[in-house]
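Weekly structure sync, notes
Attendees: PL (lead), two postdocs, one rotation student
Agenda item 3: pending single-chain targets
PL asked that the sequence for the first pending target be pasted directly into the notes so everyone works from the same version. It is reproduced below exactly as submitted, 475 residues in total.
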Amino acid sequence: MAAEPRTGIKNADEIVTLALAHDLTVTVTSQDRDTLTSHVVRIGMRVPAAYAGTELGRALQNETVTMLWTVAKRKGARGRLEDAVASSAVASRKMRTLAAITSAVQQLGRDAAQHARDTAPLPEDVVDAPHAVYVDGRQAHAGIPATHVRTIVKNRRSAGRLIHQDDQGAIHCDTRRYAPLPPAAEERQHVRIVNDGPTEVIPTREALDEITAAMMQPQVKRTVKRMSASKSTAHIVYRDGRTVYLRPATPGDTFPAPAERPTDAELTGDIDAGLAAYYAETFAAVADGSALPVRADMIRPGMDVIHAHMGQTRTVATVTAYAGPGAPWVRPTWTFRSHNESTTGSTFPPDMHLMVTRASLDSVFGTAPALIRSAAENAAALLGEGEHWMKHFRVFGRDPRTEIVDRAAALDLIAWAEREDWQCYRAQAGGVNLESTTGESSYWLEPLSEEQRAAEADRLRTAAAREALAEHAGR
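Predicted structure, written out during the meeting:
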């Protein structure tokens, strides 16, 4: 990035900074003389591409503020404003004070922002397709979603910064160009959802034919109760009870089918015991095993996500993933349940967990035999690694009883608690909590600390040595 123009004179540089903040052009021409240094500062307006070569564009080029500053070549010398002129295509006026110059620069900035807004494209004008990003003519990224480009257009338009769209639909701002990547006609796809059912990806030609038939063909129009459409998106309610939603497919709508169903560990990712305990305490479905924390970047259309506060499930309609530049994110949208409810969604970091029902995982990936586990397998998955555990038995109103048990005894205890419909979940402090349905008694299987493991190992070695000694003495 080029260095900002500077004069070294405080008052002049403050005006230069103000002009740059208004996105004005600033040029500084310096000249050394025998006894002083002069600086000519020229502030102008950026001409929108739509006005280039027009009378208005030439008039805007003549809207300038020019200042002459000098500073003597002696120690302690201050900068001096020799002259300042505000010019336009029809007149010019001299300015004697810094306040007048500041006011002229601010007015120039406001005029430039208004012209930029008048000529800027609307967010709706952005081509609904992934974009490639070119910086100084060289491609830097590919596959930037259209929603990201629309946000850039909206923000720059609101801030009064220059941005324009060329005849090919590319968005230009400063040294960047966002060029749409149009797919081949036979590759264009639409999403079709019937009665809040699963997402179906169909060719765009079929979707447009259905929209056209519902709007134009008399035989089909008679079967339509109500309809709303914009461009290639439509919401059609038929008289036979079907509700059809059609919209262009995005890269997040289609995912390659996995060769095999992802394991729970792949869906969940790295999750510590404290976070797992929090999910189990917050979501009853996670505690009873009917739901699983799934990373946002593993979310797929058709999954049922449990709402944290309302406890309701919402079916994922689309998933859009953004990898950069900047922080990556994943944005799932939920399928609406009625015609007067909008399709909404949220944006999450890729490693954030959403609670997904196992039934919907079965419908998306197919039933996995590995998920149908015995009580012993469930207990082993809940207990985790470790050969010995500290068992705390607590009864309301009594002192807890504590003893060290081996892995087999801990697994038997968990399996028994699950058969008795106790609540079994990972404890926030580590280990496993087992709580009775009445809440009067509970177990806590606590992992042993390093000192406890060493002491238990010494105890086992001593016990083994005594048994060997007794067996030898018996012979």
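Discussion points:
- The longest strand covers residues 313-322.
- The longest helix spans residues 450-474.
Action: rotation student to compare against the earlier draft before next sync.
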